[in-house]
Design goal:
Elements (H helix, E strand, L loop, with lengths): L9 E10 L2 E9 L2 E5 L2 E3 L6 H13 L1 E16 L4 E15 L9 E7 L1 H5 L9 H10 L13
Parallel strand pairs: 1-6
Antiparallel strand pairs: 1-2, 1-4, 2-3, 2-7, 5-6
Length: 151
């Protein structure tokens, strides 16, 4: 990158949703093939991060969720595409399900998996953050929602 280029990370949100020992994930088509990920996506102009995680989870899984804590902020870099992602991961609880809702383009299915099933998945993870976020969740990591402020 030259000194005149502007470097901008891609800001994304992710939902960490656990119910009865299983986590809500999606299988999705990516440029690298089929991948397993938490419901996640880009933060869009005009919305808060909390609104973004609600929207992305609904679009990708048909589940309505409510964020209850910030799990953390994470970065990962994809050198092959020279993209850095800044991920805000939120612990969320399910508040509803819309069985008739079509899932986003590229989403094969939403699936509930145990930590062992996630670790042993034959479908590769979208990034190392899939396991890292689940491990942080299981370790009890939580921050209050007002840790991130929108002015």
């Amino acid at each position: 990158m030259s000194d005149t280029e502007t470097w901008l990370p891609h800001v994304v949100v992710a939902a960490i949703v656990e119910r009865d020992g299983k986590f809500l994930l999606v299988e999705e088509h990516t440029a690298e093939g089929l991948r397993l990920n938490q419901p996640a996506g880009h933060w869009e102009r005009g919305e808060t991060l909390i609104e973004a995680v609600r929207r992305e989870t609904l679009e990708e899984t048909a589940h309505h969720v409510e964020p209850i804590a910030l799990l953390g902020c994470y970065t990962t870099h994809y050198p092959q595409r020279d993209i850095t992602y800044l991920r805000f991961a939120y612990v969320c609880s399910v508040t509803g399900f819309d069985a008739e809702r079509a899932l986003d383009t590229g989403i094969v299915r939403a699936v509930w998996l145990t930590p062992d099933e996630i670790a042993a998945s034959l479908v590769p993870h979208r990034s190392p953050l899939v396991m890292r976020c689940m491990q942080d969740y299981l370790a009890g990591r939580r921050f209050p929602l007002d840790f991130v402020n929108h002015a």
